[in-house]
Every structure is written in C-alpha cells, then in structure tokens.
C-alpha cells in the first residue's frame, strides 16, 4: 500500500493554525495511507492557547502515530515588513523538508508562506495553498493581483474611495471601502502583499475552508478561471468540541437559566480591542436594546460609567474575558452573535445556526461582513467598513450606541430580523451535509487525496 507524507506550513496565528491542523486531522481520519508533519513557525507573540492546542493534539493517540509537529527556531530579521518574519524561515523549511524520509508527496502552505513554494520546487514537490479565509476573499486577492500586475493599476487609489468595484467573484458591486486594508493601504505595504500572493498561481491546487453551498457564486467563478489552480472547498473545518472550563461554571449556570434564543453574545476576536469611547457606546447600545447579553471583553473599562452599566444590567447581562466561543454559540440560550466577522467566527455562526450582527474591524472582515449582509442576507449590519487604526495616526472611529442598539433589536427579534435566523439555520444544515459522505466538501477532500496520492512514486 502506497503511503503519502504531507508537510504543512501554517502561519503561527491561532486563527490560521487551528483550521490548518484540524484539516490535517480530517485528512488522516479519511485515509490511513496519509501522514503529516506540521512545521511550526516561531510565534510573533507568545500565545499560551496555541501552545496548549499543539500539546493536546500531539498527545492525542488517534493522531500521534501519523502526525508530528516540528518547532522551527527563530531567525533574526530586520522586520522591515510583515512578511520578513516568514520569508526568513526559508533555510529552516528547506532543512526540514530535506530530512523527510520517505520523500514527501506535497507541501501545503499558508497564505502568508507562499515564498516557500520555491523550496518545494527545489525538491520537485507540488505545493498547495491552504486558504483559511473564504472563496470571496481568495477571489478578491486574485482580482487585485490581476489589476496590479496584469493591468499595471495602482490599487492604492481604492483606499477609502467612494466607488464600487465589479469583482468577478461577487454577484453585487463591491464597495472599495470593504477591501482588505493590507491590499490598498500603503501603511501595510500592499505591493509586497500582492507580490507574495501572486505566487498563488504557482500552486498545484488550493484547499479552501469553505463549502460550495456557502459561496456558490465565488467558487464557480474560481473554477471557471483558467488562471486559478484546482480548487478544493473542504470546509467548514472547525474546532467545535469546545467546552466550558471550571472557572466558567457560573457563566454556564447563568446561561442555563436564560430562555432559548434570548441572549446576544458579543466577541470581537483575539485582537479585537476597542478604545474607551467605543466600549461605552457598545455598553449603552446593549443597555438600550433591552437584550440579555454575554460580552467577551478583552480589556475591561474601570470608569464610573462602566461600573454603573454593570450594576444596572446585573441579572440580564454578563461580562467576561476570554470565552469558549464554540461552547457559548452551541448553548440553546444564545440567539445572536455580535461579531467582528472573522472567517472562523463566521463559519461557527453558521455551524451553530446563530445569526450575526456585523461589526468588522480589520483584515478581510469588512469583506466577510459585506458578503454576509448584502449578498447572502444572513447577518444584520452594525457597520460594514469600520477600520481599527493600528498606527495611532488618526482619531479612532466610533459607532454610535443608537446604531448598535437598533441592530441588536433586529437581530434578536423573534423572526430574526429580515429572516436572517432562518437563513443561517438552513445554511448550518447544509454545512453538515457538505461534510457528510457524498456531500460537496467530502467529495472535494476525496479529490484532493486522490491528487496527492498520484504524486507518490
């Protein structure tokens, strides 16, 4: 029986690491001929959650015989731009691949690790991309690469522009204001980002953490594009077995006492931190909406106003730090999700049938919010183009409490506002069908495995 070793290189952020490793586990469960090595790049910031996740996965007897993790040592670099922390690891990646015996069948790279495609080529190995975002985002990156390098267009002119773009992967015109800042804002070196993503065309194929029924228009557009490698929509790949830990027992008990679909959950991702003014606006909006709530707030405010808010909402709301998001969304009391619209959170919203109110902050979140609200009608909008300012150059934006309160009321209405609850619940059923035997994602994963096995000598 031919066996096949895959080498995965995820970027170190938890939102990229988890879906990559969970996809690796899914492949190993599907085919006993497969084994995998995951090369772990040094983290930008120490993350104990990532460390715990890797340790737990490594010790899982279901996978440990065929799944190994290798921590790559740090390398000094000038840190002139974001990609240097990844590109400088080329010698370490080359060294680890050279040690693999037998020879790997393929290398699977993260979006931020596309420079490693040259290392795969040195060894005559096919390279695949694992894209942790959605097909719409992949399509937009592809479109902007084409504008910049095929048409020699200065895409930075779209920064904050009041124009709509006709992007082949959307059925609606896309406002320039929802384009990922990393592709149009000079502060983030868009030329470097797009140059790295241009190497996408050198991949043999692309695994995407999505499913056909979620993004049919974008997937069909990618499949019909002769410049796009083979596409494998294999999602939603999620870590959904999250449970409440001991210190969260009182939160779970509180949720257990709430009526079904009555609690709105607020969480804005691992780096979603607001300034004091925006925190107050959210608090006032929550209070005015009259909804029960559970708010995962990374940085607590100690002002007199916020303490008064906590006192006034005692009994109908809870504020906590880190929250086990999957466990919260799975709880029957939770009926709405105020979210930053990161792709993992978007997929969790769908999986658990909990509709979102969109409050995007950075990266591709504005694009995800636009798609969910405008194209799919599966989310309410608080804002679609809010941008976190990482530079401190301009005053922070602020979304008013009236807007927040109105969106929460629509979200938590019995019928889910404009039918969003029904649509999300239906898409959740389709997600499970996609992963089941004979489903669209199941079949896509089968095709990928077949393609990999053809690479084995």
From TrEMBL:
PANTHER family: GLYCOSYLTRANSFERASE. Belongs to the UDP-glycosyltransferase family. It comes from Salvia splendens. The keyword Transferase applies. This is Glycosyltransferase. It is an enzyme of class 2 (transferase). It comes from the Eukaryota. Its EC number is 2.4.1.-. Keywords: Glycosyltransferase, Transferase.
């Amino acid at each position: 029986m031919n066996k096949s070793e895959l080498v995965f290189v995820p970027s170190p952020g938890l939102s990229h690491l988890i879906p990559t490793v969970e996809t690796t586990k899914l492949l190993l469960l599907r085919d006993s001929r497969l084994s995998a090595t995951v090369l772990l790049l040094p983290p930008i910031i120490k993350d104990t959650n990532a460390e715990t996740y890797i340790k737990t996965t490594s010790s899982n007897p279901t996978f440990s015989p065929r799944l190994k993790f290798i921590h790559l040592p740090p390398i000094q670099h000038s840190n002139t731009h974001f990609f240097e922390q990844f590109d400088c690891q080329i010698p370490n990646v080359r060294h680890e691949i050279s040690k693999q015996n037998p020879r790997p069948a393929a290398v699977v790279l993260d979006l931020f690790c596309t420079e490693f495609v040259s290392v795969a080529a040195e060894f005559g190995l096919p390279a695949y991309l694992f894209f942790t975002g959605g097909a719409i985002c992949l399509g937009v990156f592809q479109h902007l690469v084409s504008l910049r390098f095929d048409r020699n267009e200065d895409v930075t002119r779209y920064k904050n522009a009041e124009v709509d773009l006709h992007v082949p992967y959307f059925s609606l015109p896309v406002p320039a204001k929802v384009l990922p800042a990393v592709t149009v804002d000079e502060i983030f070196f868009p030329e470097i980002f797009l140059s790295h993503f241009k190497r996408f065309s050198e991949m043999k194929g692309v695994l995407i953490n999505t499913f056909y029924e979620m993004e049919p228009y974008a997937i069909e557009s990618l499949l019909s594009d002769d410049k796009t490698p083979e596409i494998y929509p294999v999602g939603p790949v999620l870590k959904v077995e999250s449970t409440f830990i001991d210190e969260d027992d009182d939160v779970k008990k509180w949720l257990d006492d709430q009526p079904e679909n009555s609690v709105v959950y607020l969480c804005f991702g691992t780096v979603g931190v607001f300034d004091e003014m925006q925190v107050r606006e959210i608090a006032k909006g929550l209070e005015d909406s009259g909804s029960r709530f559970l708010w995962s707030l990374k940085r607590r405010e100690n002002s007199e106003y916020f303490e008064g808010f906590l006192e006034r909402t005692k009994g109908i709301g809870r504020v906590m730090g880190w929250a086990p998001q999957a466990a919260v969304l799975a709880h029957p009391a939770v009926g709405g999700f105020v979210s930053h619209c990161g792709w993992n959170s978007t997929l969790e919203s769908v999986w658990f049938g909990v509709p979102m109110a969109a409050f995007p902050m950075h990266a591709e979140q504005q694009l995800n919010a636009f798609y969910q609200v405008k194209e799919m009608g599966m989310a309410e909008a608080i804002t679609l183009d809010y941008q976190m300012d990482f530079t401190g150059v301009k005053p922070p934006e602020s979304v008013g409490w009236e807007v927040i309160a109105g969106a929460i009321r629509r979200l938590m209405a019995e019928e889910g506002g404009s039918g969003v609850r029904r649509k999300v619940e239906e898409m959740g059923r389709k997600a499970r069908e996609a992963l089941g035997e004979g489903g669209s994602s199941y079949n896509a994963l089968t095709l990928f495995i077949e393609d990999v096995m053809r690479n084995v000598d």
